[in-house]
Amino acid sequence: MTSDGALNAVDTPPAEQLYDVVIIGAGPAGLAAGLSLVRARRRTLMIDSNRPRHSATLRSHGFITRDGVPPLELRRIGREEFEAYPAAEFHVGMVRSVEQIDDAPDADVARFTVSTKGLRGEKNRVVTARTVLIATGLAETLPALPSIRAWYGTNLHSCIACDGYEEADRALALIGETDDLAEHALLISQWTDDLIVFTNGIGQISADDEASLVARGIAVDRRPLADVVGERGAMTGIQVADGDFVPRDGGFVRPRYAAAATFAGALDLATDADGLIVVDGRGRTSMAGLYAAGDTTPPGPEQLLVSAGEGARAAVAINRELLGPLATHPPLNLAGRTEVG
Questions:
Q1: Three-class SS of residue 149?
Q2: Other C-beta atoms within 10 Å of 193: how many?
Q3: DSSP conformation letters of 151-193
Q4: Are 164 and 188 contacting, i.e. CB atoms less than 8 angstroms apart?
Q5: The FAD/NAD(P)-binding domain covers which part of the protein (predicted)?
Q6: Which residue, 255, 246, 249, is CA-closest to 274?
Q7: How far apart are the first and last CA of the chain?
Q8: Is residue 4 included in any domain, yes or no?
């Protein structure tokens, strides 16, 4: 292995047997897609680094039949269901690269080579695939406050729809440095009448939006912050850089997000202004045979149930593509109707 962590010719194993599908990421989107594909008897390799973004979150909410289940437990159940099928294979590793095989004409042959670095004692792998689904979700950057990670997932949350109910009727903070804080504050206000938006001297709220928030009883604090503080395992408030202390019981943080798919950079996929992978209604990217689903696609972070649905929808499209065309009939769309053109 080279000094920058890349695989060299000695480290790189030979390409392994062809897979119908390689799924990168074992969150809700990847697991839902994987379950659908192995039930269709598609030889499917799922690759995951076991480093989920919400590993600190104690409970996930809004996922039907699993409301209140810890996210790690949800992943464990999903993996067990996936691996119960003969066509399933799971690899703990980090994807180093996904490369298109230039002379592969269609889905009847290998169209991609996927290289990984094995983790937790697993070997490096190089596999080939007829199709690839990217379901890696997002990487997030929180405001640079020394102790913010200590409260993230317990007293501070990023998903308003997921955790608003549990934070109801408390003195809450919204901390962020983006230009959409007013919209987030409006959503939070349905659970509390005691909310302060902290911009840390960076986040942008227009004068008109601030007036609208103030009219709803929501305060805006534009001062730079020093830290989020607490005691005895509970958040107690916000320490402002000027020495002031603002008592708060908990709240929400607005991270900055980026698609967690740096391995796909060489593929030159179409992305939006935020770097998220653009897909059509079936989850197809701008490259034939390559799909994406979940938070790594616009609009970005969503509820777990929505991501799972996107993964399941992409799996339907992948399975249909792998069957190949019919000579006399156009393919079915996801609603079961025939498409023209």
A1: helix
A2: 12
A3: HBTTTEES-HHHHTGGGTTS-EEEEE-SS-HHHHHHHHTTT-S
A4: yes
A5: 19-311
A6: 255
A7: 48
A8: no
DSSP tally for the chain: helices H, then strands E: 7, 16
Domain boundary among 229, 254, 279: 254
Q: Is the pTM of this model over 0.90?
A: no
Is-contact 116 95, C-beta < 8 A?
Answer: yes
Describe the chain by its helix, strand, coil percentages, rounded to 5: 25, 30, 50
Task: State how far the Cα of 37 lies from the Cα of 278, in Å rounded to an integer.
Answer: 22
Write the CB contacts of 62 (distance below 8 Å, at least 6 apart in sequence). 161, 162, 303, 304, 305
Residue 204's Cβ-count burial label (10 Å; 0-12, 13-18, 19+) is middle
pLDDT digits (tens, 9 = 90+) for 296-330: 999 988 888 999 999 999 999 999 999 998 876 66
pLDDT over 60 at 231, yes or no = yes
Domain containing residue 264? 18-139+257-323
100: exposed, middle or buried (C-beta count within 10 Å: 0-12, 13-18, 19+)?
middle
- CB-based contacts of 137, cutoff 8 Å, min separation 6: 25, 27, 29, 52, 53, 260, 294, 295, 296, 307
Q: Which two tokens stand for residue 53?
A: 């973004």
* Angstrom distance (rounded) from CA 17 to CA 10: 20
124 and 151 share a domain?
Answer: no
Q: For strand 44-48 and strand 88-100, is the pairing parallel, antiparallel, or unpaired?
A: parallel
